[in-house]
Amino acid sequence: MKFYNIFIKFRLQIGLLALVGAILVNYEYSFWPSLVLYIIAVLCIFTHFFIGPLRLIQEFLEEGDFEGAEKILNGIKYPALLYTPIRSVYYTLKGNIAMTKQDFDSAETYMKKSLSLGLPMKEAEGANKLQLGMMAMQKGNMKEGESLIRQSLKAGIPDKESAALANLQMCQIMMQKREFRSAKDYFRRAKAQKATTQQVVDQIKQIEKYISRMPG
């Protein structure tokens, strides 16, 4: 696996060297002896631009090294050439990293680009729309925020912490709209996720103090 990652990292250079070698062999001898080198060159160069090096990012993300992941993303000079599902993931990752830097405007732009391309997994679409919804809420755009969070829950959210957060946000929206029955329903869904993140646990405890006294 490590060898494969090294190959991905230097795939373009390998392709260019193979191309130079193929041209030299073709010039000195003939086309047929250089065919294998031409094939290697085409495959390496094509996959470099069509698939990209996104596989290398996984290790950095698992270690929480967002700077390392961003460096690889910034190395992709022509994202428009990436295969569409991979380009969608590319913009999602760009958006996630922008959010870690609290650059919410850039994050929103990247997330919307990702959604416009279509995400390869339905759960990824849900997580993406949840982030966009939360950003809309922060900007005071309640209507858009509610719509996006509803869509995220409908699409499905892959992890219980985010699912709990989405249901809590909808609970608070319903409380503000005085739709207390819906608020209680979203609260029950949030608790059912059994989240462990302190932020989510604190929100549940805070809402639980007075939600039982609501009508409906």
Structure description:
Helix content is 77%, strand content 0%. Among the domains are: 1-50; 159-216. 29% of the residues are buried. Helix 7 (104-117) runs antiparallel to helix 8 (122-138). The mean pLDDT is 90. The longest helix is centred in the N-terminal third of the chain and has 20 residues, at 31-50. By secondary structure, the protein is an all-alpha fold.
List keywords for this structure.
216 residues; mainly alpha; elongated
How many beta-strand runs? 0
Largest sheet: none
Helix coverage percent of residues? over 70%
Shape: elongated
Strand coverage percent: under 5%
> Structural class given helices, strands, pairing?
mainly alpha
Quick structural overview:
The protein has 216 residues and is mostly helical.
